[in-house]
Amino acid sequence: MAKKKAAEPRIIRPDDIDPHHHWDRPLQAPGHMQVDFEERVNFRRLHDYRLARTRAALANSGLGALLCFDQHNIRYTTSTVIGEWARDKLTRYSLLTGGGDPYIWDFGSAAKHHRLHAPWLHHDHCRAGLLGLRGAVGGDYELFRSAAREIKALLDEEGVGDMPLGVDVVEPPMMLELQKLGIEVRDGQQTMLAAREVKNIDELMLLNMAAAMVDGVYQDIAEALKPGVKESEIVALATARLYSMGSDCVEAINAISGERCSPHPHNFTDRLIRPGDQAFFDIIQSYMGYRTCYYRTFNVGMATASQRDAYRKAREWMDVAIDLLKPGVSSDRIAESLPTAQDIGFASEMDAFGLNFCHGLGLGLHERPLVSRLNSLRDPMELKVGMVFAVETYCPASDGVSAARIEEEVILTPTGPKVISLYPAQELPIANPY
Questions:
Q1: Last residue of a domain, one of 196, 211, 241
Q2: Rounded to an integer, what distance in angstroms lies between the CA atom of residue 80 and that of residue 116?
Q3: What is the mean pLDDT of residues 272-276?
Q4: How deeply is 82 buried, as exposed, middle or buried, from its count of CB atoms within 10 A (0-12, 13-18, 19+)?
Q5: Tens-digit pLDDT profile for residues 153-206
Q6: Is residue 2 in a domain?
Q7: Residue 346 belongs to a domain with what CATH number?
Q8: Cis ω before 263 (30° cut-off from 0)
Q9: Alpha-carbon span 298 to 314, nearest angstrom
Q10: pTM across the whole model
Q11: Are strands 65-68 and 165-167 parallel, antiparallel or unpaired?
C-alpha cells in the first residue's frame, strides 16, 4: 500500500531561509497570540529551518541517520512534544535519514494525535512505540529487540543500512540490540548540537519572549524580597507568575540568600530572608520549548561595602566577556577573559566550573558552544551570527558568606552582542531599601 503522505514539503537548504533578524530593526517580543496584522513567530518556517539545519549537519557527519531519544532533539526535528514529563523517560524516539523525512515513535494515543494534528509529518511516520521507561518495564528485552529490527528495516529501506547510525542518549539494552543487528552506533549528539547552534528569527523571537517573561518575574521578586519571606516562597511566587504568563515548563529556580551564597549550592530552601542579605536567583523556564537561564542578585534593604565590591567585580567580568562576543572570534579568547578558579577561591577549574562561563541557549539549557576555562582553551570553536549565549559570573564577597551572581542572555548579531535579559543589573539592586 502506498504511503499516505502529508502535504508535499518544500525542498530547502539552511541558507534558503534567512536565519537571522533584519538587524536594523528591534527584535520582537510580541506576545503569545498569532495575529493577522503582523508577522510573529512562523512555526512552519521554524520547522523547515530546523529540519534543514539537521539534514545539513547529518550530510557533513559521515552518519547515515540520526536516532534521537533526547527530547530537545526530537522536538527540533519533528516539532512534536507530549509534555515536559517525557524529558527523562527515554521512551519517545525519532529517526531521520539523510534523504528521508522524520519518524516519531510515541505512546500510541500520542502518535494518533500527531497523525491528526501534525500535517508536516507523514501519517505512517507517526508510530506507536514503547521501550524501557528507564527499566520500569522489567528485564524483557523484546521491546528493544523489536524496535531495533524496525529501525534496521527502515535504514535498509532508505538506503543507509550499511552506514553508521548516530545516537544521542540511549538505554544500554537498546544500543546492544542495535549492535547485534550489525549497526555501527556512533555519537550523534554532537551532530545534533551542531545543527542547533545557530538560531533563525523564529527561535530568536521565542528566546526573547521567554526572557521578557523573566524580566517581569524579577520585578515581582524585587517587590516581594523583604525580611521574613522564605526562599521557597520566592520560588513559588516566580513559578506561579511564569505559568500565568504562558511558560510551558518551569524547570528550576535557584533562590539563595545570606550565608548560603558562598559556596554556591545551586538550589533553594525554606531559609528566611533577613535584612542586609545578599540574595541571588536563577530562573530556568521555557516558552514553546525555548529556555531561559537568567541570574540576578539583590540586596535586601541595604548593602555592605564587601557586598558592593563583589557585585562590582562580577559585573566587570561579565562586561569584559560580553564585549568579546563577536562573529569570527574564537571561544578560547572568551575563556581567557574569564576569572580563574583562584580568583574566586577554588583550587582548580574543575572545582570552579559552572560559576564563570558562557553556554549556548535554545531548546536545551546547555547547547553549543560552551565556553569555559575548563574546556575551551584546548578545544576552541568559532563564534557565529545567530548563536545565543547565557553569560554567567560569580564573585564571593570578602565577608566570607555573601556573593554576587549575574547572568545575561546575549544574541550574537553581525556587529556583536545584543543583550535580551533586560532587568537592570549594571548596579547592585537594593530591594525595598530602608
A1: 196
A2: 12
A3: 98
A4: middle
A5: 999 999 999 999 999 999 999 999 999 999 999 999 999 999 999 999 999 999
A6: no
A7: 3.90.230.10
A8: yes
A9: 13
A10: 0.94
A11: parallel
